[in-house]
Amino acid sequence: MNVAVPKFVEPSAIHDIKWIPLKFFNDARGWLVELFRNDLIDPNFHPVMAYISQTKPGVSRGPHEHIDQADYFCFFGPSTFRVYLWDAREKSPTFGKKEVREVGENSPYALIVPAGVVHAYKNVGDKDGLVFNGANRLYAGWLKQDPVDEIRHEKDANTPYQLD
């Protein structure tokens, strides 16, 4: 079953990448933001696990890719992240394309990264930043008994996937 792409999903230079603007609802108590709604994305990308990470200013995570896993990132602050995407899927119509976008505190987005798309992000702000991820596969499989589904390009000094 495929879900129709909502009108507010923004296009990407890379096939199957989805940029979904996040909306904050503010009132006297504070704010609320919906990070995930299963009625808005294809069930193939529905999370089966979730985590949140903190990244310090100037620090990057990645680049890496997954063979089977898709990631559902949410960049909502309190800092700014530069996100890097490279289409490494040989059968993709956008194979070899790269996309870079700044998101976070002033431009909150959810991002669907399908398997085979190399991805990285760097905190380019001046404060610790938070990132939510709802992956569609369990990290290291059921009860963490399987190999981790990652190709870690950041360990290769000669990788073609370089951050600016």
What does this entry look like structurally?
It catalyses: dTDP-4-dehydro-6-deoxy-alpha-D-glucose = dTDP-4-dehydro-beta-L-rhamnose. The chain is an all-beta fold and 164 residues long. It has one domain: Sandwich (Jelly Rolls), CATH 2.60.120. Helices cover 0% and strands 41% of the residues. It is built from no helices and twelve strands. The chain has strands at 18-21, 24-27, 30-33, 49-55, 60-65, 71-77, 80-87, 98-104, 109-113, 117-123, 129-135, 151-152. The strands form three sheets. The chain has a five-stranded antiparallel β-sheet, with no helix packed on it. Strands 8-7-10-5-12 form a five-stranded antiparallel β-sheet, with no helix packed on it.
Task: Please tag this protein with its features.
164 residues, mainly beta, Jelly Rolls, five-stranded antiparallel sheet, 41% strand, dTDP-4-dehydrorhamnose 3,5-epimerase activity, dTDP-4-dehydrorhamnose 3,5-epimerase, EC 5.1.3.13
- Bulk shape: globular
- Strand element count: 12
Task: Predict the CATH topology.
Answer: Jelly Rolls
Number of helical regions: 0
Mean pLDDT: 93
Q: Over the alpha carbons, how many angstroms does the gyration radius reach? A: 16 Å
Main beta sheet strand tally, sense and closure: 5 strands, antiparallel
Structural class: mainly beta
CATH superfamily heading? Jelly Rolls
- N to C succession of SSEs: EEEEEEEEEEEE
Uncertain segments of ≥5 residues (pLDDT<50)?
Answer: none
> What is the percentage of strand-forming residues?
35-45%
**The level-1 CATH class:** Mainly Beta
Organism: Limnoglobus roseus
Catalytic activity: dTDP-4-dehydro-6-deoxy-alpha-D-glucose = dTDP-4-dehydro-beta-L-rhamnose
InterPro entries: RmlC-like, RmlC-like_jellyroll, RmlC_Cupin_sf
EC number: 5.1.3.13
